[in-house]
Write a structure and sequence with these properties.
The complex is a heterodimer of chains A (320) and B (403).
Chain A (H helix, E strand, L loop, with lengths): L13 H16 L1 H14 L4 E2 L7 H5 L8 H19 L4 E3 L9 E6 L8 H9 L12 E6 L22 E6 L8 H5 L5 E3 L5 E3 L9 H5 L6 E2 L5 E2 L7 E3 L11 E2 L5 H4 L6 H5 L5 E5 L6 H8 L2 E2 L11 E4 L2
Parallel strand pairs in A: 2-10, 3-14
Antiparallel strand pairs in A: 1-9, 3-12, 4-5, 6-7, 8-11, 13-14
Chain B lengths: L1 H16 L3 H27 L14 H14 L2 H9 L3 H4 L2 H22 L18 H29 L5 H27 L12 H28 L5 H31 L6 H7 L9 H19 L1 H4 L2 H19 L1 H4 L18 H30 L11
Helix pairs in contact in B: 1-16, 2-16, 3-6, 3-8, 3-9, 4-8, 6-7, 6-16, 7-8, 8-9, 9-10, 9-14, 10-12, 12-14
Classes of the chains: A alpha+beta (320), B mainly alpha (403).
Chain lengths: 320, 403
């Protein structure tokens, strides 16, 4: 975790080994190729695969809150979801549930001096987290702002990326700030969202009732609601899934950025960071005194959005 | 006792089913609206909340706006209860049950608006894992259901006693009446706190919000009661005293003034300081960056509020009962716009990241909302149809020999 050099570790972490294993297994069983072929067919007909389009099964209806699930429950539920995805899309997925790592608290920093507004992070995030394309749901919103102000009311998320960075503009990507004092968590009437020990705010998609009070409470516009059944084209499904992050979601529930916990808790970097062409994004363990993130926060002039709300974000911006 | 209660229910049910041709037409009209709303809701259940015009930038719309308004309407029953029980106003005491029944019907509407708004109504049982006391929404669920139970109990007890020809035992209901007075204030306060507790939404994040909610509720609610009592007197033969209506008129005259004053204080504070956070208020009153969907509505609402206030304080106007009724309607509609969409939507404009996304309800939202209003009207009509003859002594367990 939290190395200062780019994320190309020589020794694979356990997480990567698992991922490799899954990929090899997929190749062996040929399911990856099969689904690629199937995908063309599917795209021609219904194009996309939904989840939660039909009424919930009795297992889904009675499924307990995440925190009440035993390891056996989880095992059973994960396999059920994998089977369901396979039947629906022809894609073999693997659902894991990596726990928070002892002593690790994640933080993110973004260098506004070098971000060029390419939105590569936005797309990488969408692929990694199985976000629907139609209508488009994106966790990261990149704002284009005139040089000379930091007023968000004067920003726009609707700009073309063909000629970025535009003259006299700068770019401010916003995603979930994983607040240490998250107003969204307090708002939830049924405890379907909470802050994990490593600082990541998660949603139990199987417990959320869809009241959207958390969406209203978030000062960073970080939460997304499934206004309709989410659909991902089979060939775009990321099979490496976390129960609390990028597994299949449902119509009528809320979701959000989880710092790619299915990757980061296994020692990898978030997808948005890996995709960034300028190296503007930095991520790591705040508790590690030698980490790059710690170095940035303690030596750069960092700031957080809407500091006056005392939400204590784990997402810092800085200029270099 | 149990048997008597069953007979009470049966007699009430019987009374609800009997009526003139116009009565049946009225019921048919309401049922037709409800049927349309059920179809619209089934469509929404099927495709998801995409059937509404809500989006991530405006995650609450007409449903929650109506809900917010109606919570006030339910709380306003105390404007009859306080004069009747605290100040022994006899004219109002005679009609207090009719007001409380309105609260019951309105609360059912409130809960219906919440149910149609949530994305996963099948998961309603997840409230077993209550996030209390942190979440204001969990408080709201408690106080709303509690208030419904209280009013349901009080009205049922009083009507059942009347039905049996017995004098109600004060010990068995007066404590609950006083509990309900405090509780009524709490339901609208908690609902205001849903909004005012949000640091993320500067438009709502103001201490004036809960007082303003109560003031506007106590203007629109008694106005609705005046209209209801007029119908009850003219169409159902219940002798509502002029004194009762005039007392309510006095109440609205004061509460509407206070409401307008609060609203003005809010506008002044937001606009004069010229802070960035006043963008929502500017959007509401004048439009923002070329978007001004709400502007005509809010000015119409303010005009209606002012008109109502003038009617309620000017004897020459309100002495004419028809003009008074028009004033009541103005207060009801004015507050509905000003506290419903006029409060909820600007909270989302601009969005926390500065986007201006406008919202107007979809056809589905319109049908579902209209159906819930029809449901409330149907429920209140049926309750009155049984309650009025019981109150008049015409519907009894052991009918007295004809005079």
């Amino acid at each position: 975790m939290a190395r200062s050099d780019p994320p190309t570790p020589s020794v694979p972490t356990p997480g990567e080994r698992v991922e490799k294993l899954v990929e090899t297994r997929l190749e062996e069983s040929g399911s990856r190729r099969t689904f690629l072929k199937l995908a063309g067919l599917a795209a021609a007909t219904t194009a996309v695969s939904g989840c939660g389009t039909s009424a919930p099964t009795s297992e889904e209806f009675f499924r307990q809150h995440y925190k009440k699930l035993t390891p056996e429950d989880k095992e059973r539920i994960f396999r059920l979801i994998e089977d369901e995805t396979l039947a629906r899309t022809g894609v073999a997925t693997h659902i894991s549930d990596p726990p928070p790592i002892d002593g690790v608290e994640f933080a993110y920093a973004l260098n506004l001096s070098v971000c060029n507004g390419s939105r590569r992070c936005v797309e990488a995030c969408a692929r990694e987290n199985n976000l629907p394309d139609d209508p488009e749901m994106r966790y990261i919103r990149v704002l284009e702002i005139d040089a000379g102000t930091l007023d968000l009311d004067e920003s726009t998320p609707n700009y073309g990326t063909d000629k970025v960075p535009a003259k006299d503009k700068f770019y401010l990507p916003v995603q979930c700030h994983q607040c240490d004092h998250p107003p969204c968590v307090r708002a939830c009437p049924v405890g379907a969202t909470w802050k994990e020990p490593d600082g990541i705010v998660v949603v139990d998609y199987s417990w959320c009732i869809g009241c959207r009070f958390c969406v209203v409470a978030c000062p960073y516009f970080a939460r997304r609601f499934n206004w309709q059944a989410p659909t991902v084209a089979p060939e775009r499904i990321n099979p490496n899934q976390g129960y609390l992050s990028n597994r299949p979601r449902f119509k009528g529930v809320v979701e959000k950025c989880t710092f790619c916990l299915h990757r980061t808790r296994k020692g990898r970097m978030p997808a948005c960071l890996e995709a960034c062409p300028t190296g503007a994004r930095k991520f790591g363990n705040l508790n590690d005194p030698n980490s790059e993130i710690r170095h940035i926060i303690s030596t750069k002039r960092v700031y957080v959005l809407k500091e006056e709300l005392a939400t204590l974000p784990r997402f810092y911006y800085f200029f270099s | 006792m149990v048997l008597e209660f069953l007979r009470f229910l049966r007699a009430s049910g019987g009374a609800m089913m009997r009526g003139s041709r116009n009565y049946y037409l009225w019921l048919l009209f309401l049922v037709a609206w409800i049927a349309l709303g059920v179809l619209a809701y089934l469509h929404q259940l099927n495709v998801g909340l995409v059937a509404t015009n809500m989006v991530d930038q405006v995650p609450w719309g007409a449903y929650i706006a109506n809900f917010t308004y109606l919570v006030g309407m339910a709380a306003a029953a105390v404007m009859l209860v306080i004069p009747a029980y605290v100040y022994d106003d006899h004219a109002l005491h005679e009609v207090v049950v009719l007001g409380e029944l309105m609260a019951v019907a309105v609360l059912v509407m409130c809960l219906s608006f919440v149910m149609v708004d949530i994305g996963r109504p099948d998961r309603f049982w997840h409230f077993v894992r209550f996030n209390w006391p942190a979440s204001m929404l969990s408080w709201d669920v408690i106080v709303l259901n509690g208030y419904l139970l209280l009013n349901f109990y009080i009205t049922t007890y009083l009507l059942f006693s009347k039905f049996r020809g017995k004098k109600p035992d004060r010990k068995k209901y007066v404590p609950f009446v006083f509990l309900a007075i405090g509780w009524a204030v709490s339901i609208h306060t908690v609902t205001a706190f849903l909004y005012s507790g949000m640091g993320a939404r500067p438009h709502w994040n103001a201490a004036i919000l809960a007082p303003r909610f109560l003031a506007s509720a106590f203007a629109a609610g008694p106005s609705m009661v005046i209209i209801a009592l007029t119908v009850i007197r003219d169409r159902m033969g219940f002798p509502v005293k002029d004194k009762a209506i005039d007392r309510l008129r006095q109440i609205v005259a004061v509460t509407m003034m206070i409401n307008l004053f609060f609203f003005f204080s809010e506008i002044f504070t937001e606009l004069y300081s010229f802070k960035e956070h006043a963008a929502s208020m500017r959007y509401l009153l004048f439009g923002l960056k070329g978007h001004h969907l709400l502007v005509p509505y809010i000015w119409a609402a303010v005009t209606l509020d002012v008109f109502a206030a003038i009617v309620f304080v000017t004897p020459r106007l309100h002495k004419n009962h028809n003009v008074l009724l028009v004033g009541c309607a103005a207060a009801i509609v004015g507050v509905w716009v000003e506290k419903g969409m006029g409060l909820v939507i600007p909270g989302f404009v601009p969005s926390p990241l500065g986007e201006v996304v406008e919202y107007a309800p979809s056809f589905t939202e319109f049908c579902v909302s209209a159906a819930i209003w029809a449901l409330g009207a149907l429920l209140y009509t049926l309750l009155l149809k049984a309650a009025v003859p019981i109150e008049l002594g015409k519907l009894r367990l052991n009918p007295e020999p004809a005079e």
